[in-house]
Amino acid sequence: QADIFTECVQSISRYAENTGADFIMRTAILDHVLSDEQDYKNVIMEKFYIRELLRYYDRVLYLDADILVKPDSPNVFEYYADPDWLYLYNEVDYNGVDYDQYIEKVKNKYHIPWTKNDNGRYDFYNAGVMLVGRSGVEAFEFVEPEYFIMDDLPMIVDEPYLHRNLFKHNIKIGELDKRFNTMVYFEDDGWFLHFA
């Protein structure tokens, strides 16, 4: 029996074929992105390669490698037809994690505003599934010294850094239906099951 990683990658590949999308799987660590020797930082920054892909594609659907796409999943490109928005899942009201203390640190270090949802909580978008059009390219700007400002956060740095870009560049954000990024630790009734 295949391991979960293999199953996830195969499901993503089938989904790309079913939706008429090109399937691109990044397997090499982006050594040129970070000069730091810590591989995990290079790996989590792979999503910033989207900037390069948008030179060749009108839209990019980014999926972490730990996403299992169910065979009956709708075509996300048709579900969200407007290419001028960057679609992300706002997880703040669903997973029970209190991000406010981390967000305050990020706001203060980057000197940026931060949006709040209707419940008065800071928005926090999960970067495991992203549907991006060319107008969202600046969300994937990478400035190494800015990235390392976040080194002391007790969390993975890619999402706070992505938020820095989203708010710095006033990217138009559309909220992705949670069924397109269902965190399996909390529930399993979705189309894209995320094992993070």
Number of strands: 7
Low-confidence segments, given as residue ranges, are 30-35
Total of helices: 7
Neighbour order of strands in the largest sheet: 1-4-3-5
Order of helices and strands: HHHEEHEHEHHEEE
Mean pLDDT, rounded to whole units?
A: 85
How do the strands and helices of this protein lay out in sequence?
Layout: H1 4-19, H2 39-44, H3 50-53, E1 59-63, E2 67-69, H4 76-79, E3 86-90, H5 100-110, E4 125-133, H6 144-148, H7 158-168, E5 173-175, E6 182-183, E7 192-194
Quick summary:
The chain has 196 residues and is α/β, with parallel strands linked by helices.
Keywords:
single chain, 196 residues, alpha/beta, 4-stranded mixed sheet, 3-stranded mixed sheet
Describe the structure.
The chain contains seven helices and seven strands. It is globular. Mean pLDDT is 85; it is low at 30-35. It has 196 residues and is of the alpha/beta class. It has helices at 4-19, 39-44, 50-53, 76-79, 100-110, 144-148, 158-168; strands at 59-63, 67-69, 86-90, 125-133, 173-175, 182-183, 192-194. The strands form two sheets. It has a four-stranded mixed sheet, with helices on one face. A three-stranded mixed sheet has the order 2-7-6.
